[in-house]
Amino acid sequence: MNDALFLHRIHFAFTITFHYLFPQLTMGLAPLIVVLKTLAIRTGNESYDRAARFWTKIFGINFAFGVVTGIPMEFEFGTNWSHFSQLTGGVIGQPLAMEGTFSFFLESAFLGLFLYGEKKLSKWGHWCAAFLVFLGSWLSGFFIIVTDAWMQHPVAYTRLPNGSFTVTSFWALLTNPWALIQFAHNMCGALATGSFVMAAVGAMYLLERRNDEYARIFLRVGVIAGFLSSMAQGFPTGDLHGKYLAKHQPVTIAAMEGLFKSETGAPMVIIGQPDAEHERIDNPIVVNKVLSFLVYGTTTAEVRGLNAFPKDQWPTNIPLLYFAYHIMVGLGTIMIAVMGAATFLLWRQMLYRARWMLWILLLCFPCPYIANTAGWMTAEIGRQPWLVYGLLRTAQGYSTNVNAANSLFTLLGYMGLYLALGILFVFIMEREIGRGPIAMEPDSIQSRTVVTAV
Amino acid sequence: MESIWFILVALMIVAYAVLDGFDLGAGILHILIARTDADRRTILRSIGPFWDGNEVWLIAGGGTLYFAFPALYAISFSGFYLPLHIVLWLLILRGMGIEFRAQLSREIAAGLFDGFFALSSGLLALFFGAALGNVIRGVPIGADRSFFEPLWTTLLPWGETGILDWYTIFTGVFTVIALTMHGALWISMKADSEIGNRASVVANRIAPILGIFSIIGVPLTILARPATVANYLRYPALFVIPAAVMVSLYFVWLWNRGGRELPAFLASCAYIITALTGVAAALYPALLPSSYGPQFDITIFNAATGSYALRVGFIWWGLGMVLATGYFIFLYRMFRSPRLIVPPCAR
């Protein structure tokens, strides 16, 4: 493997993976904050307002980390992937520029208003500010997904004489079916992160026997939202995504499932390690015919394995792709089970006393983070060896004028900086969660912090 | 259409310079003129609700550049690889400095974070100025339409060019001074009497220095790249722009002395706007000149994307900007608060 290419890939992978830890929580919390604000207005109960303020504070911290780690992402297209951006800017520049124009301005302006303006605005005015922050954060996600979806499944483009791509239909680009399915699947994932974190904080407070009233609010909202989003994550969005993937990237799904040879009534591998050299699965535990059923809706259909495709079209890292996919599906299943059980206990009014369940909810908060990361790895590693599926190979996209040493230098720089950021983040979050929602007066967000978001 | 997008991208960069300019300037100054923790917080609070919104202009400008002139985006960003990543690190450091200063309970943490904030603000202004200098002077783009510049070489006028060389260091220092004045005027407008007065005094001292820099900047620029005067000689009416630069600076000085804070700040905005307009007028139609000769220049014509994309972009961009301007007018009106006074014990 060409060193510079490898380093440019790791560079992007590392920075995007770290970055996405923050937006998935903000995108997940934003609608839940709107729910809390709505409950506050409908019940007139001050506790919901405090709860909303507490989560807005957590939102603000994550938003700030998301912004500072997000700015490099937009520039890395140009710095590390200049051939790619030169060729495709005429298409994906559109959604990326729209993200800046439509969502960042919206989000940053109304987050400022939401954090500072509670006393100046009416109840409904403040609710509207929360809603616009939610809208901005989800729009932002949508434009990014449109960008990625075009790389996965290029639509609405033509090539100019110099070889570069340019968009031919603005609406067809924005309504790329791949983007719509992926957006639905991704937002369920974000909502799951928001719900699991909210439920985990509630569970922790109950286990510590403090902030009782707020803990119950967090658990109620978090568990219900967590159950709904985890379910929708699998069915229908995950199911649709898988079927669409099988149709347009059949070689990817073969690699994800570790299916080296085409089979009718193909089995699904639950556990096992793919041995790409000998083209087999070691230590397999399989369920017969399930893969055929999941992909084609019938147990007898033939699923094409990797042997049906030329080797130069195979994803370049099959074991990692296989594990990422299996971790995503496995954790997704566990998440449904946990939230299903918690919802049942909530319905039977036993949840707040079931300490074993509270422990499980507390310990499960990393699950959606890992599942979301693994899901994105599945999507992006599965797209290999292509940068734009079927049109532009990854090896043709990087900045040839930036050598391996420069890429390594900045990669190490980001690693160091993000390590410091990560430690700071854990420290600040721990302190805020320790303080809890009790102290949350309308102006407390303002007076306890010097300046903005946090 | 390409020319329209040249103007729009320039507009976004100017908006960024004017808006983030004052908070960069305030960041440079706050450690110098504030004596107490409360003073510093007064200054930080005056930019608090605005700074991240202001930085969005940089992101939106970058995105617009990417979509309208992908070749320019790709060639310049990869060519300026090291300084650009350093700028990104500084932006991260600066965001941490301002947002998390009050998060750590130790006394010395606030001082440390203030230091980060001031240092990164100053270095950012320096790097942005140097970047502008690089664009004016041109970079070594050859027939393969790519370049890679070292951070510095010998720093001598007759040596090889680098990201930092005699000319770009000049433009960098120039920018630091201009933004410091801009930030000082913002503080004097926003903060209470004592610290505001101090800021006003600083602005008054800086204005004449800036005048000298503005004047010697012209011959130095012509020396760095003689072609910069070509447009001016072809259309002498353009000489209105440098005249407007000097007039704005004069009014900054006059109004600031007279204690008229808002007009002085607006004159400083006009100074930055006209100075950058002057640069844009010198460059057009090039976006990134090549130091090997005009045939290798990246121009609006050889860098633009397809015409459909430019047209459809014009529609949503217009809509988006109307919305964004609306939000910001609303936000600035909401937080128009007369004077900021932070009680010393509120920490």
Describe the SSE topology.
The complex is a heterodimer of chains A (454) and B (347).
Chain A: H1 3-20, H2 23-43, H3 46-80, H4 82-116, H5 123-152, E1 157-159, E2 165-167, H6 170-174, H7 177-207, H8 212-248, H9 250-257, E3 263-264, E4 268-275, E5 280-287, H10 290-296, E6 302-303, H11 318-347, H12 355-363, H13 366-383, E7 386-388, E8 392-393, H14 404-435, H15 444-447
Antiparallel strand pairs in A: 1-2, 3-6, 4-5, 7-8
Chain B: H1 2-33, H2 37-47, H3 51-68, H4 70-79, H5 81-99, H6 107-137, H7 166-190, H8 193-224, H9 230-234, H10 240-257, H11 261-283, E1 286-288, E2 298-299, H12 300-303, H13 307-334
Antiparallel strand pairs in B: 1-2
Helix pairs in contact in B: 1-2, 1-3, 1-6, 1-7, 1-11, 3-4, 5-6, 6-7, 7-8, 7-11, 8-10, 10-11
Based on the model shown, name its key terms.
heterodimer, A: 454 residues, mainly alpha, two-stranded antiparallel sheet, 7% strand, B: 347 residues, two-stranded antiparallel ribbon, 13 helices, 2 strands, globular, disordered C terminus
Structure characterization notes:
The complex is a heterodimer of chains A (454) and B (347). Chain A is built from 15 helices and eight strands. By secondary structure, chain A is mostly helical. In chain A, the strands form four sheets. In chain A, strands 1-2 form a two-stranded antiparallel sheet. In chain A, strands 3-6 form a two-stranded antiparallel sheet. In chain A, helix 2 (23-43) packs antiparallel against helix 3, helix 2 (23-43) runs antiparallel to helix 5 (123-152) and helix 5 packs across helix 7. Chain A is globular, with a radius of gyration of 23 Å. Chain B has 347 residues and is an all-alpha fold. Chain B has one domain (2-334). Chain B has a two-stranded antiparallel ribbon. The model of chain B is unreliable at 338-347 (pLDDT under 50). The interface between A and B is large, with 71 and 73 residues.
